[in-house]
């Protein structure tokens, strides 16, 4: 269960403030994947970071019970640049209490980093970092995966492998996904929600959510 | 008001177990980069104080002075510089813990204060082990470095660790929200180098100077350590509880500031 109780979250800007949620109470539906929509600055990434626990709400509380939740996969760099890829994996395994050997073997094969795995992460290209991060998140079995604007990395072969791994996950896990690409959202998500002006509304189908989001963008234009 | 809601003992126990595991993982990760890319790695924890003490011994011997206590300048500075470095090491490295581990905070179980505690624990452990090894090395070269009252000696070092921890928590809380703070702390640390008592014994100083030194909690720790080290040195100004009281006040202030500004720092 992931439940928001009376949650408010605001962002201070240079001038004024932006309200992301204003006393919102809701439970995130489980058992189907959820696409998160909202115009730029509506707080989609912050919403994911609140679900994962990276950020606290200003008031209210977020209850996570009986679910394991990933960190938000995406832009954020989750590796220490002075440590090698292998050392970073070891750290993540200690944090999540996973078997280091299993995870390392899986990621070694999955991310195709070869000898680079024993080089400091700061020597990696952005593609290599993304592959390492994606491999690591696939090695852990979370109940809920949070995906923030993940972009395809690597060659066609790696992309195919990623898609397969991801689809396998979808059979057992839910994903909550932020993306600007409606195509990506319809591919991966069944349900949808729209963040707008401090409130959040849930829709049974992603198509419905996309339609509502379309209305909002039209109004703003 | 903080709403504890349905927080139970088992939540508290699970939370504590989680934090211990995370801090442990962070300590292992910090050890890896503590001395950066330097060759010899941890040997620097010994080389650095030995060079410092060597320089001080050289200067003061050249000046033709005799140590104010005991017969050995090596021992005198060992018991002055090492506690100073321990305090500075803990408090200054704790200050930058959050920034240095920013990327690892992407993992939600890893929270800001875990990085701070891991650095405090690692610095304290490193400092105390290097102290023991320095004592061993000096003793091997027949320098009289075995304390007169061993228990009290470690009590003195415990007060140094407490002060470093208190200051470190305050630094870690203020560094992300007030950039001026670390500049002020830098000045304060340099001031400490000259005035905490590495080079002198406060009891032998003029009354006014002695009074000002007695306001500095770190000076009390140094006096405590030397009083425990030298047989027959009894300070008239030492209050053993003073550094601990200041440490607790600093720690509470640091933790309170961290809690109040946590949302802002998380969003950085």
Primary descriptors:
heterodimer; A: 221 residues; alpha/beta; three-stranded antiparallel beta sheet; 9 strands; globular; B: mainly alpha
Question: How do the strands and helices of this protein lay out in sequence?
Answer:
The complex is a heterodimer of chains A (221) and B (268).
Chain A lengths: L1 E11 L4 E11 L6 E4 L6 H9 L6 E6 L8 E2 L10 H12 L3 H12 L14 H14 L4 E5 L7 H17 L1 E5 L3 H7 L2 E6 L2 E5 L2 H15 L1
Parallel strand pairs in A: 3-7, 3-8, 5-6, 6-7
Antiparallel strand pairs in A: 1-2, 1-4, 8-9
Helix pairs in contact in A: 3-4
Chain B lengths: L8 H25 L10 H19 L10 H23 L1 H4 L11 H29 L9 H25 L5 H16 L11 H7 L3 H13 L11 H26 L2
Helix pairs in contact in B: 1-5, 2-3, 3-5, 3-6, 3-7, 3-9, 5-6, 6-9, 6-10, 9-10
pLDDT averaged residue by residue of chain B: 92
Please report the two chains with the greatest interface, counting residues with C-beta closer than 8 angstroms to the partner's C-beta.
A-B, 27 and 24 residues
| N-to-C series of helices and strands of chain A | EEEHEEHHHEHEHEEH
Structural class by sheet pairing and helices of chain A: alpha/beta
Total beta-strand segments of chain A: 9
Could you state the oligomeric state of the chains shown? heterodimer
**Which structural category fits the helices and strands of chain B?**
mainly alpha
Give the helix tally of chain B: 10
Radius of gyration of chain A, CA atoms, in whole angstroms: 18 Å
Helix content of chain A: 25-40%
**Name of the CATH superfamily of the largest domain in chain A:** P-loop containing nucleotide triphosphate hydrolases
Q: Termini distance of chain A?
A: 37 Å
CATH topology of the largest domain in chain A: Rossmann fold
Largest sheet of chain B: none
Give the termini distance of chain B in whole angstroms. Answer: 25 Å
Computed over alpha carbons, the radius of gyration of chain B is: 20 Å
CATH architecture classification name of the largest domain in chain A: 3-Layer(aba) Sandwich
Tell me the strand order in the biggest sheet of chain A: 5-6-7-3-8-9
> Unreliable runs of chain B, pLDDT <50, ≥5 residues?
none
List low-pLDDT spans of chain A: none
Order of helices and strands of chain B: HHHHHHHHHH
């Amino acid at each position: 269960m992931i439940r928001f109780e009376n949650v408010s979250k605001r962002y201070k800007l240079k001038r004024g403030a932006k309200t992301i949620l204003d006393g919102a109470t809701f439970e995130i539906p489980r058992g189907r994947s959820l696409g998160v929509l909202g115009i730029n600055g509506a707080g989609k990434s912050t919403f994911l970071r609140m679900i994962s626990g990276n950020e606290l709400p200003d008031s209210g509380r977020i209850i996570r019970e009986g679910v394991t939740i990933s960190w938000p996969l995406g832009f954020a760099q989750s590796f220490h640049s002075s440590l090698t890829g292998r050392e970073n994996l070891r750290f993540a395994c200690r944090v999540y209490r996973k078997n280091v050997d299993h995870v390392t073997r899986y990621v070694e094969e999955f991310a195709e980093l070869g000898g680079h795995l024993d080089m400091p992460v700061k020597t990696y290209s952005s593609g290599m970092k993304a592959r390492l991060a994606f491999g690591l998140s696939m090695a852990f079995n979370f109940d809920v995966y949070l995906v923030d604007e993940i972009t395809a990395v690597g060659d066609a072969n790696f992309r195919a492998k990623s898609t397969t791994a991801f689809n396998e996950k979808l059979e057992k896990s839910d994903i909550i996904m932020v993306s600007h690409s409606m195509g990506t959202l319809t591919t991966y998500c069944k349900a949808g929600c729209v963040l707008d002006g401090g409130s959040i509304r849930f829709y049974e189908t992603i198509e419905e959510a996309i339609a509502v989001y379309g209305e909002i963008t039209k109004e703003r234009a | 008001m903080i709403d504890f809601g349905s927080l139970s003992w088992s939540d508290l126990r699970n939370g504590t177990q989680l934090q211990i595991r995370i801090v442990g993982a962070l300590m292992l990760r910090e050890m890896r980069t503590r001395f950066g890319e330097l060759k010899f790695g941890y040997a620097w924890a010994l080389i650095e104080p030995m060079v410092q003490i060597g320089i001080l011994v050289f200067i003061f011997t050249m000046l033709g002075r005799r140590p104010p206590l005991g017969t050995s300048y090596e021992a005198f500075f060992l018991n002055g510089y090492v506690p100073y470095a321990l305090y500075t090491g803990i408090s200054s490295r704790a200050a930058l813990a959050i920034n240095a581990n920013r990327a690892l905070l992407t993992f939600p179980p890893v929270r800001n204060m875990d990085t701070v505690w891991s650095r405090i624990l690692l610095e304290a452990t490193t400092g105390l082990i290097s102290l023991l090894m320095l004592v061993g090395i000096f003793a091997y070269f027949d320098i009289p470095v075995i304390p007169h009252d061993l228990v009290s000696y470690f009590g003195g070092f415990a007060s140094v660790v407490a002060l470093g921890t208190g200051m470190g928590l305050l630094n870690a809380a203020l560094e992300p929200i007030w950039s001026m703070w670390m500049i002020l702390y830098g000045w304060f640390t340099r001031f400490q180098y000259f005035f905490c008592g590495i080079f002198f014994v406060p009891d032998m100083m003029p009354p006014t100077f002695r009074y000002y030194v007695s306001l500095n909690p770190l000076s009390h720790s140094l006096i405590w350590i030397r009083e425990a080290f030298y047989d027959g040195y009894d300070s008239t100004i030492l209050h053993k509880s003073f550094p601990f009281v200041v440490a607790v006040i600093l720690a509470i202030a640091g933790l309170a500031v961290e809690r109040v500004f946590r949302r802002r720092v998380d969003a950085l």
